[in-house]
Amino acid sequence: MTYYVYILATKERGTLYIGVTNDLMRRVYEHKEGLAEGFSKRHGVKHLVYFETHESIEAAILQEKRLKRWRRDWKVELIERDNPRWVDLYKTLML
């Protein structure tokens, strides 16, 4: 099974949310529709700006925790390395 670590944003360089899931499409949909209670719903964090895959849940959770400890500017650099325009990647997953 594949696991995903993902970053959502409110807008370019806006508020960030980091999560982990085994179903990226479903989970981002839940965030977009306000079905995911908590931080992302309270802050309107809905745009998928980064994700990576992992072969095990342990590796994914370890990476999620690692990214959450990173300084904000490092997270922005990570996002902008592959997504410099902060495009909502959810749309590309639907193709």
Number of strands: 3
What is the general shape? globular
Order of helices and strands: EEHHEHHH
- Kindly report the spatial arrangement of strands forming the biggest sheet: 2-1-3
Could you name the ranges where pLDDT drops below 50 across 5 or more consecutive residues? none
Topology, pairings included?
Layout: E1 3-9, E2 16-21, H1 24-32, H2 39-43, E3 47-54, H3 57-69, H4 72-82, H5 90-93
Antiparallel strand pairs: 1-2, 1-3
General description of the model:
With 95 residues, this protein is of the alpha+beta class. It has one domain (3-93): GIY-YIG endonuclease, CATH 3.40.1440.10. It is built from five helices and three strands, in the order E-E-H-H-E-H-H-H. It has helices spanning 24-32, 39-43, 57-69, 72-82, 90-93; strands at 3-9, 16-21, 47-54. Strands 2-1-3 form a three-stranded antiparallel beta sheet, with helices on both faces. A hairpin with a 6-residue loop joins strand 1 (3-9) and strand 2. The longest helix is centred in the middle third of the chain and has 13 residues, at 57-69. It is globular and about 30 Å long. The model has no long low-confidence stretch (mean pLDDT 96).
